[in-house]
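Write out this protein's structure.
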Amino acid sequence: LPSYNGARKLLGLARIGSFEEMLIHTDIDVAVFLHLYGDVDKVDFYVGGLLERKEVDSKGSGSEELGETFAAVIREQFQRFRTSDRFWYEWQPKLAAFVENRGLQQVIEDNVPGDKSVPMPFMLATAVEDVKCEDSGLSVELGKLGITMAWSVVDARDIRFQFSGPQGNYQWVGVGFGPSSSSMAKADYMVLTFNGAACQVGDFYSADHAVAPVRDPGPPSFASSSCTVANGAFEAVVVRPIGATDSTDRALSLKDPVEYMYAASSSPWPAYHGSTRGGGSISLASGAVTQGGEGSARLRGVWIAHAVVMISLFSFGYPLAVVCAVTFRNSRWGFVAHSLVGELGMGAIVVSVASMAASTSSGVTTHGALGLVVVFGATLLFVLGKSIEHIPGVLRNKVKQVKRVCGYIVLLMAPIVQWLGFRLLIPFASPVLESSPVVWYVPILIVIAIGVGDRL
């Protein structure tokens, strides 16, 4: 057998470039594979194939049981079986037309004596609408909303969701399934919108986190849906496919836990929903909740703490350190204040970044990538500041120039990172802070004004 990457090349699939890329969705330490293989191109075909995520999770469609490589092998093998079979029915146009225009009903009628009336073989005698979700015993309370989501599996293709509870002052309620219960990115939503006593159900999709979901552009994904409001309470029923019918749908697993999220608002759809949202991980087969809304709330608490620390540091502490260095550079207390801010900032960065790394499972974002650049720059500033007095005079000026350039980079990038972080978290509704990074540059402009005034 070829190596894992060798097999992928033969199958026309992209090469896996590193152990990190190969193991990103596992708990396996990269060092283990580095010790075993030394080079990613030496990984065994079978081992590499077993490590892959299910094809439907990695590509949005395809096999629900196998990874991309194994699925490609089996897919090609069956295509070869068909192509090499000279008796395959599609090679004979008349036979193909006969087979493709006949269903199970015709087969039974041709072979079973007596009554020939078999309109819909294997169809349930009870209509889907008469099957109550609460009879299945599978349900979950949607946190603070006071709303219950119950569900039952209709057949191998469809699942039925039922939402019920007080309407309150909500103008919309949304429940979605996605890769993560703490991120809107790539999530598939069922949204109930209310207008007085009227209620509608919509199929929506969110391309990215903190971006308002849009209506699914593909054909309707619901087999059926209904919503009624009476005496201040509502009940909605949605029958949707278990699998994905287009690229914006999220396939649901009946074997593994699925990530879900919910939100509601008293403002017209779509609107900010900071105090009425949550999520978790549930088993659609057993109803077990493996991560409830409280876990999501704790995670959000860590993120908010991270935001407070970073905004305090880069919007106030860092500009203060620059002011001390520029305006009071010749005074002892100015130097002490500058150094103290640097030391406190370095400690805050270490604690904040470590807590985020230990508590979040979200994928890489632009905010995270640029944030790491800013953190690296701030760390370099701290190290240079602490060591500059011990550097020989000839080299010291060069180091000072590097430190100054690094400081400007951090100063200019920090507001953009803060703006991106605010848009991801949205701790409170603020169209001004969400709209543009310009307002986040106000502290920087104040520092520049002080510096210019000092020069004049």
